[in-house]
Amino acid sequence: MKRSSQKRRTPAGRHVYLLFAAPGVTLFLAFWLLPMLRLVEVGASGPSGAAAYLAVLTNRHYFTSLMLTLLLSAAVTLATLMISSLVGLFLQRNRFAGKAVLLAMLTFPLAFPGVVVGFMVIMLAGRQGLIGAVTNWLFGDAWVFAYSLGGLFLGYLYFSIPRVILTVMAAAEKLDPALEEAARSLGANPLRVFADIVLPALAPALVSSGAICFATSVGAFGTAFTLATNIDVLPMAIYNEFTSYANFSMAAALSIVLGATTWLVLALARSWSGNAAGAAA
Amino acid sequence: MKHSFRFYLQLAFTLLVCAFLIVPIVLSMLAGVTENFFVGWSSGFTLRWVMQVWDTYQQTIWRSIAIALACLAVTTAAGVPLAYMLARHRGGNSRLARVIEELLMMPVAVPGLATALALIMAYGQYREFRGSLLFILIGHVLFTLPFMVRPVLAVMQSSQLSVLEEAAASLGAGLGQRFFGIVIPNVFSGILAGALMVVTLSIGEFNITWMLHTPLTMTLPVGLADSYASMRLEVGSAYTLIFFLMIIPLLIAMQWVTHATRSRVRL
């Protein structure tokens, strides 16, 4: 087998590049992989042994909280995809004054920690919030839903929308306008053009960003922590298990289940869309 | 008028969504300088709450900046060489490199709560270590490392860099000479983009930090959660205002860098 020669010039041989990876890989192995293995072990060390991993299915309390988490995240993902597709396509295709500034501001929430997002929801729908003030003025009845499931939904929407808008815009950039032109000239109405031309072209981007949005919502802790006094989403259940009841093995088992779920969703979406996916919240 | 009705409908919807994202930010910034938010802005503006936050939580701000800078140092020192390996091992097409890249993303994909619990279970018994800022720093490094590696790797994979390296190698430059003389200066835009991302994420990191912190190692976002839970709305707002003032310039710089370099780096 003939190899391109410049890569093998150094006398140390072809493994020399591995040295460059050593510090980073060591950090990762020592402080993530090893602790994760330990977590798996702790999860199986409780009174019920390895069956603790099944508790999310067998225990009513954990099962409800898992279902609630998954349903809420799915609802958020769906709403985010619809809202962000509309907004993203519009922003990509139209020019108007102040668009650049608007776009810049739209990306700010991407870097906000969950607690701040929770606080934003309190600002909107809390006891002294904007929505309450407006509805009080309109109907004489203040809507306060920040601390309920509705508030959590709003919070997850808040950090998901910017992420998906950016992905939609990047994907829409590559759309061929000639295809839509052709469809229109053949008599397709806007809805038909959207469903048959635009949506299939955006699908991979929507799947991968939707998966990130779902995974982020499933694992989001800060927002729930700020808002939820009595909503039992899985991250809160884990937190309570760990701090209030000192049930370390259960907390470990549940967080492994939570981690495996998000990882699986991302892996599935990636194998489907062929896109690198990364989440941050 | 050249715009259709549909245009205005879409514009209205877009503006509504933007308002949803931006109005709370403006609102909380204003609340932080309002004398009494319950009464409204008619109660007048004051810096009293900001001063109170400064007195109560000043330490958390300095601590967060210190951790962010340390995190930047570690991710740069470990991440840039790592990206180089990913780009060059077996001509940039090795399975090992792909596995490493995949693994590196895990702490980002998996909820921070799980990462934090794992760290506590594995190293929590070392009291000194558990109570030190180093413990939090490690959490931040794990979370931000891929955000340094990815933009740097993207720049390294541009064909221009491999041509330059080839030229240098043909003139007899060794690996070290190439890395420090050619690679580092040329991937500077990637390092800059990664650095801004790392600092921004580290300053705002909550999910991992909340579990890892002790009363003596409280960071800014942990302080935020603390103030939301126990302080008046005005104090929480004033603290959020300080957070925004720290983070928004970083975000604007980030956008400016990606625009200026036009290097197609997607974060």
UniProtKB/TrEMBL annotation, chain A:
Primary location recorded for the protein, binned into one broad class: membrane
Key words of the record: Cell membrane, Membrane, Transmembrane, Transmembrane helix, Transport
Compartments, as annotated in UniProt: Cell membrane
The protein's name: ABC-type transporter, permease component: MolT family
Pfam families linked: BPD_transp_1
Gene Ontology cellular component terms for the protein in this record: plasma membrane
Signal peptide: none
Phylogenetic classification of the source organism: Bacteria, Pseudomonadati, Pseudomonadota, Betaproteobacteria, Burkholderiales
Annotated TM spans: 62-91, 103-125, 137-159, 201-228, 248-269
Example GO BP: transmembrane transport
Domain ABC transmembrane type-1, chain residue ranges per copy: 66-269
Family the entry assigns: Belongs to the binding-protein-dependent transport system permease family.
Membrane-topology descriptor: Multi-pass membrane protein
Organism superkingdom: Bacteria
